[in-house]
Design brief:
single chain, about 325 residues, mainly alpha, 11 helices, disordered C terminus
């Protein structure tokens, strides 16, 4: 739980420092191709980039643009390897559930072999990224930011109410994207759902940052946004898997088995879309962001917090 004098700027810097340590500590593990190392480094990139974007109003305009771009670049380099690994694992697991007539073990082994070949093909890109001047520049930029933070005056505000405002803003942003996705036609639906997933993930990361300062009161917000993110992630994985199967069917000579798998992925995607309104209803409740109006640092913030709390208390809870 944050002390009354904790500022939102300090919470942000603590988040950046923690993730920068994670990022730096994974270089050797990724080079050694340790299990899950690529995934953990990619997540650290995402959390850092999300923090810099979500809390950008606390930072001098343009001060972190290059750093955000470098984090996006490194995350993409890591993602090409990670995505192929996860896709092959997913399809092989589904293949082993096929009827005996489809020769499930043989099909699963073919998919695993394809996945290993794809991973080996893109693995050198990961090592090259870690060895590049741009990776060293990224590390130096993180160190410079922490040594001399480009904070604006608003970063000196009390942490709790500011974190609540940011969480509410990210909740509204996710709500807009979910509404757009639910209203989208078939030609635009998958892309819209993917954008909603990214918004939910950013909201989740904002909640994680808040939880580090205000404690368990923010954890329910994190849990609800994570549920939305994971549901939409399952939809995205199914869409990507179906497209991969369509591409592989002719090349691998498995049109029947791959067709069965393809239909299964489409059904998974449809199920996820059907569950979205219910899962989002739990994440959309305004009370989830009422964790911040505690212990403001000065009388002005006390008045602001009390007014905001009273205003929110009068709102009807949205589904």
């Amino acid at each position: 739980m944050a002390r009354p004098d904790t500022t939102v700027g300090q919470v942000l810097l603590d988040r950046i420092e923690a993730q920068a340590v994670v990022l730096a500590g994974l270089d050797d593990a990724v080079r050694a191709d340790e299990a899950d190392a690529v995934h953990r480094m990619r997540v650290a990139c995402r959390r850092l980039r999300s923090a810099l974007r979500t809390f950008r109003r606390l930072l001098a305009p343009g001060a972190t643009d290059a750093l955000v771009a470098d984090l996006r670049w490194l995350g993409a380099a890591l993602g090409r390897a990670r995505d192929r690994e996860v896709l092959a694992e997913r399809l092989a697991a589904r293949a082993r559930e096929l009827p005996a007539a489809c020769e499930p073990e043989r099909v699963a082994e073919a998919l695993e072999q394809w996945g290993r070949a794809e991973y080996r093909r893109v693995r050198p890109e990961v090592v090259a990224a870690l060895d590049s001047p741009r990776r060293r520049s990224l590390a130096a930029a993180l160190a410079a930011l922490l040594a001399d933070p480009p904070l604006r005056p608003r970063a000196a505000r009390a942490a709790a109410p500011e974190l609540a405002r940011i969480a509410a803003r990210e909740q509204r942003r996710t709500a807009r994207r979910v509404r757009t996705a639910l209203a989208a036609g078939p030609g635009h639906r998958d892309r819209a759902l993917h954008e909603a997933r990214k918004a939910a993930k950013r909201a989740r990361y904002a909640g994680e940052t808040a939880a580090s300062a205000v404690g368990p009161v923010a954890e329910r917000y994190v849990e609800r946004m994570k549920a939305v993110q994971e549901l939409l992630g399952e939809h995205q994985d199914a869409v990507v898997a179906a497209a991969a199967l369509a591409d592989r069917a002719a090349e691998d000579g498995e049109p029947f088995a791959y067709g069965v798998l393809y239909a299964g992925q489409l059904a998974t995607a449809q199920e996820a879309r059907g569950r979205l309104p219910e899962v989002w209803a739990h994440a959309a409740k305004r009370k989830l962001t009422r964790f911040g109006w505690a212990c403001p640092a000065d009388p002005v913030e006390t008045a602001r917090g009390a007014a905001a709390c009273a205003s929110q208390a009068g709102d009807r809870e949205r589904p």
